[in-house]
Amino acid sequence: MELVGYARVSTREQELGLQIEKLETYGCTKIFTEKQSGAKSDREELKKALEYLRSGDKLVVYKIDRLA
Known about the structure:
The protein is α/β, with parallel strands linked by helices. The chain has helices at 17-26, 44-52; strands at 3-9, 30-35, 58-61.
C-alpha cells in the first residue's frame, strides 16, 4: 500500500509548502501538486494522481476541500 498525496491551492499567489510538509510527515511517498481553482473541472494533477493509484493505495489530502 502506498500513500499518495494531493495538494492544491486556488491561486498562484498561495503556497503549497504547508500542505506538502504535512503530507510528507504523514508518510506520502508521491505527492501531486496543483495551483488552480477548484471551480475548474480540468485539474490535470488530480487526474494524474487518481490514475497513479493502484489497488490498496490511499489518496491523502491536507483538507477535504482540496478535492472540491
